[in-house]
Amino acid sequence: MPKNFQILTDSSCDMPAGLVDQLGLMVVPLSVHFQDKDYENYPNGSPKNRLQMKPFYDALRGGAATSTTAANPEKWASAMRPVLDKGLDVLVLAFSSGLSATCASAKLAAAELAAAYPQRKIRVVDTLCASMGQGLLVYLAAQRQAQGQSLDEVADWAEENKLHLCHWFTVDDLMFLKRGGRISAATAVMGTMLKIKPVLHVDDEGHLINVSKARGRRASIDAMAAKIGQTGIDPQNQVIFISHGDCLEDAEYLAKSVRETYHPKDVVISYVGPVIGAHSGPGTLALFFLGTRR
Prior knowledge:
alpha/beta; four-stranded parallel β-sheet; 11 helices; 13 strands
């Protein structure tokens, strides 16, 4: 069944390029300034992506400075125009407005193009999600598109279910959260000394919130896995997403725990991309699933 609308998202979804291609998605890149160069962040594994993840995280460990830039309205408009010119409608599933101006830029581009293409439909959903939480919402929306649902049906589903997309994170280096203003310098220093690892989540406003603490890395990972049992909806019929900041061994430990305890349909592992990784740091580990609440 040929599709009559195109799903667009942005590179903060952290989906691997193979999955992006498989689902027929279009991804608008955010930008990263790193080692005196500007890079457009495309999905990991894409031939367009000149910023490779392993060297990026190794440089962060060495103290390299980096900054990120939201996708601007023109970048969104440049992606939408060719789709509209083909006679397709557009559904945008954008990075949380609580963390970036990217979604606001998509809405500005959509408003501008709506006037130029009055016969086409453009809808922008603020996912209030980040990293592969955004990616999982996009993945599930693409499944519905493949089943023949209309643009409005898919967009309405995303709006109704985005606050059921659970995001659980832990980080290895508290100093990255300190630089981003998430915790105080005193908390970062004391936590580092005591080997305290935070367990964080993305709340209903799309902000990253520090929820609890665990003593040691393995305890923080186990605490994240337990969240599926606390709020997960029918986990054995879900696809679970995990993203990591160059700590594949920890991601695989988490995936093994999830598989053995909850028996999901599948577990997908990918990197935390440079846009989010610049702020969360090496050793970030995140778990995403559908739950009764965030």
